[in-house]
Amino acid sequence: MQRVEFSLRLSCFYFGYDTENGISVAEQGAPKFSGPNQIESVRGQFSYTAPDGTPILVTYTADENGFQANGAHLPTPPPIPVAIQRALAHNAAHPEEEEPYRRY
Keywords in UniProt for this one (predicted)? Predict the structure, then answer.
């Protein structure tokens, strides 16, 4: 290890380290409050060099919305076609009305 850091204050934390082979990690966490609920929230990043020499950097968050990672090397979904976007917007603006139950 070339560098190691750790800090803990009340309910918040931070840690980070760098290794001799170029791996770097940093993460911090703290509670968030949503109304009366406490939600753990973590942000961080790690980086390394891929076997082909490509530098890799991943940033992430983990909270009430789950784990979400970002990185230039990660695949992204194709854009939603305009016609489907319009249909989704129309459906959201015009919710289906429930019909009364009918007997047969």
Answer: Cuticle
